């Protein structure tokens, strides 16, 4: 399965992946209307530490503990992709505490959100497409 991978040494810390992610999941076709003057809530985020920057997003683990910990059954895994069913999520934050990478976050549209590799958008992940330095790639390893 293809996943999003980060080459930390190439990350500039520009945060464009965050903006592209927020736009991709906004449901609005115009990026300016989707983001201008709004607080963005991306499913990927840049962490900055001294001389290194890196993107943090769902790893779609082979044996995801977040899915096992979900008390409402909102998280599931199919063909390697971990997804969240917003209609089932009760906002208990158990998945947030269970994820070893901190990749499940509160959402504006429902209780929780996470990277689903832009599968609902029918495109390659926009965080990858929008990275000017190719620090984020979508590939099988």
What would you note in describing this structure?
The structure is a single chain. With 141 residues, the protein is an alpha+beta fold. The protein is 20% helix and 21% strand. It contains 5 helices and 8 strands. The protein has helices at residues 16-24, 31-35, 65-69, 94-98, 126-129, and strands at residues 3-6, 45-49, 52-56, 75-78, 81-84, 105-106, 112-113, 136-139. The strands form 4 sheets. The protein has a two-stranded antiparallel sheet. A two-stranded antiparallel sheet has the order 2-3. The protein starts with a strand and ends with a strand. The mean pLDDT is 92.
Short description:
20% of the residues lie in helices and 21% in strands. By secondary structure, it is of the alpha+beta class.
Helix and strand topology:
Layout: E1 3-6, H1 16-24, H2 31-35, E2 45-49, E3 52-56, H3 65-69, E4 75-78, E5 81-84, H4 94-98, E6 105-106, E7 112-113, H5 126-129, E8 136-139
- How far is the first residue's CA from the last residue's CA? 8 Å
Based on CA atoms alone, the radius of gyration comes out at: 15 Å
Shape: globular
Strand order of the largest sheet: 1-8
Strand content: 15-25%
Contiguous helical run count: 5
Structural class: alpha+beta
Element pattern in H and E: EHHEEHEEHEEHE
- What is the typical, i.e. mean, pLDDT? 92
Low-confidence stretches: none
Largest sheet: 2 strands, antiparallel
Number of strands: 8
Assign a percent range to the helix content.
10-25%
């Amino acid at each position: 399965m293809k996943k999003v991978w980060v080459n930390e040494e190439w990350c500039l810390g520009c945060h464009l992946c965050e903006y592209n992610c927020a736009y991709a999941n906004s449901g609005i076709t115009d990026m300016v209307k989707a983001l201008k003057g709004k607080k963005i809530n991306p499913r990927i985020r840049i962490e900055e530490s001294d001389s290194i920057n890196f993107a943090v997003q769902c790893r779609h683990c082979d044996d995801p503990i977040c899915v096992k910990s979900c008390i409402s059954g909102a998280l599931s895994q199919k063909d390697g992709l971990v997804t969240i069913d917003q209609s089932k999520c009760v906002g208990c934050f158990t998945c947030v505490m269970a994820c070893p990478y901190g990749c499940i976050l509160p959402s504006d549209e429902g209780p929780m959100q996470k990277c689903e590799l832009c599968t609902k958008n029918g495109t390659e992940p926009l965080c990858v497409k929008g990275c000017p330095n190719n620090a984020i790639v979508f590939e099988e390893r």
